[in-house]
Design brief:
Elements (H helix, E strand, L loop, with lengths): L1 H77 L7 H14 L3 E8 L2 E4 L10 H6 L3 H20 L3 H13 L4 H17 L3 H14 L11 H8 L4 H12 L7 H11 L9 H15 L12 E5 L6 E7 L8 E7 L1 H15 L5 E6 L15 E5 L3 E9 L5 H72 L5 H33 L7 E3 L1 H18 L3 E6 L6 E3 L1 H17 L6 E9 L2 E8 L31 H11 L3 E6 L5 E8 L7
Helix pairs in contact: 1-12, 1-13, 4-5, 5-6, 6-7, 7-8, 9-10, 13-14, 15-16, 16-17
The structure holds adenosine-5'-diphosphate.
Length: about 675
């Protein structure tokens, strides 16, 4: 029978798996696949949208850049740049740059050589031209004196006389540059005549008062004198900073030379002034203008070098200088990226994120971030740079697909969990059913066994009485009592089994009627007392009087009490004391049965009310796990409850709690 049930349940599980679980999983798989397909489709759409936006943005950027370059060069061409004074040119360019932030480094080309920013140092200046440019009369006198002093110093090697001559030059009322020249020679002569203190003083004056002026070899006095003075770190650092920030208009050659003498003061990098020389070198190495250029026309040329490349725009210098001159600038990429790009993006209302990505050089392409990112080239203006477009943060695409994905995976997990739970419940049900079957078969043998003992006793004493005549009265009474007791036990046992059978078949009915519980309890105890006495138990009873009325079924209550008393006797161990109390508390009537026996371990306390359940160490006492199940059933039918207070070795206290009827006012 048990094996048959097992097979039936196994088959049920198999049918469940095949008919429900598998189709559900297949449906889930198809669903996920379709979400995936939807995601791919949205991605493809998104990428093409991004590409469209990118192309729109690229053409707007090319257009705006060219427009701005045009405006800038038009204005630059109107400025007079024919001077040979680098500082003048630089100031003009700085002014232009303020008006046209698109311009980074300006440049002037002559033929194929770079005139500005100067790469090479021009040949040393002639003293005559240098001196006459200011005041010819004073200049003439100065030149005569200076030449004489120079002759004394360099040819005749008479530094004392030379010093006097230079001093006279110095004292002439001439331009500052001539004074500085004389002073620098004086300083040299002070050294020669062994007056280092005076030399030091002269160099310091040169450094402090004439630092921005240039000597005949185009060296600023600050640097020329600075190198002669004692090299303190502070002075060194100051000169370095001045150089890097462009205090002096120097050639690339000079910058290199001075930097090599000042290195170590501060790291070079990020200096605009130094950057222009790097650009000038790239220009000279790589700039090739092809074809004729008409005046007023603007051309573009992408140049390799620097941090990835330079984009230059250039035009013809206005006529008048004879040689072909080109004027141009390299786009200020930082400004372009940080100002123009966002401006154009805003004008076209492009919501996507846009960043410029360099294809080579130190700032070159970072790794791609998302699969939906799209690179857009700008070949017309920046061949060395790409725009990279990625979906705007929080864009609906990711939200909807992600939400769809989450909902789907969430429900998948949920459904799978439900399916697994179904399998678990089914399996548990099967094992519980087979366990119950086991219990049932044990129950049958237990009941048969329990029936046997009283029947045997009854038959034994019945036969004894009928066969033997000469028993004394006392013995005879004893035999009758045993027969009555065993018959009662038998009745009780059969009552139990019958009640259980009725409960199982759903036919058990209770006949509730209002009354005093005390009477039924007293009657039941009275009948049981004798039995307890025979077993050597002492029963203490404490029944409160005037209890509130309760609706109850007297037979059922009596049976519940008997079951509890039976257990108290069975599980009392060495103790022989049983207490019964009946009292009212908070609108309830409580019937309590207490023993001092083996008790029930905490984790078993609730299980003892299940049908056929028996605590393992109490099982040896006989019984079949029905008593407490019936008690609970009875209490449920009365709308009451059963409480248990017990611990291993501490005895047990079972309380039947009946709801009392509200008392009527009389
Ligand atoms: P049984 O017929 O086995 O006594 P019950 O349903 O009456 O069945 O009791 C279930 C189990 O609860 C018993 O096997 C026993 O281990 C435990 N139990 C019941 N009453 C007591 C008690 N008063 N003291 C200790 N254990 C008890």
């Amino acid at each position: 029978m048990v094996a048959l049930r097992h097979i039936v349940y196994r088959r049920a599980i198999r049918i469940y798996v095949v008919a429900i679980v598998l189709p559900a999983l297949v449906l889930l798989y198809l669903g996920l696949k379709s979400v995936q397909r939807q995601r791919d489709a949205i991605n493809a759409l998104l990428v093409s949208n991004l590409r469209l936006s990118g192309e729109k943005l690229a053409s707007e950027l090319e257009h705006r850049t060219a427009q701005l370059a045009d405006a800038c060069l038009r204005e630059a061409a109107a400025v007079n740049l024919r001077t040979s004074d680098g500082r003048q040119i630089r100031l003009q360019f700085e002014r232009l740059r303020e008006q046209h932030p698109i311009a980074g480094y300006f440049f002037l080309l002559e033929g194929n050589s770079v005139r500005y920013p100067a790469l090479r140092t021009p040949p040393p200046r002639q003293l005559e031209a240098y001196a006459m440019s200011e005041d010819p009369a004073a200049g003439k006198k100065y030149v005569a004196l200076f030449r004489e002093a120079e002759d004394q110093e360099l040819r005749l090697d008479r530094p004392e006389q030379a010093l006097a001559g230079y001093r006279r030059c110095y004292e002439l009322p001439t331009a500052a540059s001539l004074k500085a020249l004389a002073l620098s020679r004086m300083a040299r002569c002070f050294r020669k005549v062994g007056r280092p203190g005076a030399a030091e003083q002269a160099y310091r004056t040169l450094l402090e008062n004439y630092g921005d002026l240039f000597d005949l070899s185009h060296r600023p006095y600050a640097l020329a004198a600075g190198f002669e003075l004692e090299q303190t770190p502070a002075r060194h650092a100051q000169l370095y900073r001045d150089l890097v920030r462009g205090r002096w208009e120097l050639s690339a050659e000079q910058v290199n030379y001075f930097l090599s003498r000042l290195v170590g003061s501060e790291p070079v990098g990020g200096s605009d002034y130094l950057g222009q020389f790097e650009f000038a070198r790239a220009l000279e190495a790589g700039f090739r203008h092809r074809g004729p250029l008409r005046s007023g026309e603007v051309s573009a040329y992408a140049l390799a070098g620097g941090q990835g490349g330079y984009q230059t725009y250039y035009t013809l210098l206005p006529a008048g200088a004879g040689r072909d001159g080109l004027l141009g600038f390299a786009v200020n990429l930082k400004w372009w990226e940080q100002s123009l790009l966002p401006q154009c993006r805003a004008r076209l209302a492009i919501k996507e994120e846009v960043v410029a990505v360099w294809k080579s050089g130190p700032g070159a392409a970072p790794p791609r971030r998302a699969d939906a990112e799209v690179p857009v080239a700008l070949p017309g203006i920046f061949p060395f740079l790409d725009l990279s477009l990625s979906p705007a943060p929080g864009a609906t695409w990711s939200d909807t697909t992600r939400r769809g994905f989450l909902v789907y995976t969430g429900s998948t997990v949920l459904i799978v969990a439900v399916l697994i739970m179904g399998i678990l419940l089914l399996t548990r049900d099967v094992s519980r059913e087979s366990q119950l079957n086991q219990f049932r078969s044990d129950f049958v043998s237990a009941v048969s066994h329990e029936l046997k003992t009283p029947l045997t006793l009854i038959r034994l004493y019945g036969e004894t009485l009928s066969e033997g005549e000469g028993f004394p009265d006392e013995d005879r009474r004893g035999f009758y009592q045993i027969i009555t007791r065993e018959a009662e036990r038998l009745t009780h046992l059969i009552d139990k089994v019958l009640t259980f059978a009725r409960i199982e078949s759903g036919q058990k009915q209770y006949h509730l009627q209002e009354g005093d519980l005390g009477l039924v309890v007293a009657r039941t105890l009275e009948a049981y007392r004798q039995y307890l006495k025979q077993l050597g138990f002492s029963l203490t009873v404490d029944l409160a009087a005037d209890l509130p009325l309760v609706r109850f079924d007297p037979d059922a209550v009596s049976q519940a009490l008997l079951n509890l008393l039976d257990n108290a006797v069975k599980y009392s161990g060495d103790s022989t004391e049983v207490n019964v109390r009946l009292r009212a508390l908070d609108g309830k009537v409580i019937l309590e049965v207490e023993d001092h026996g083996i008790g029930i371990p905490p984790k078993e306390r609730q299980k003892v009310f299940e049908q056929f359940y028996r605590v393992s160490d109490g099982a040896a006492k006989g019984g079949y796990g029905l008593g407490l199940f019936l008690v609970r059933h009875i209490m449920d039918a009365h709308g009451g409850s059963i409480e248990i207070e017990s611990g291993r070795g501490e005895g047990s206290r079972f309380r039947l709690v009946f709801p009392a009827l509200p008392e009527l006012m009389t």
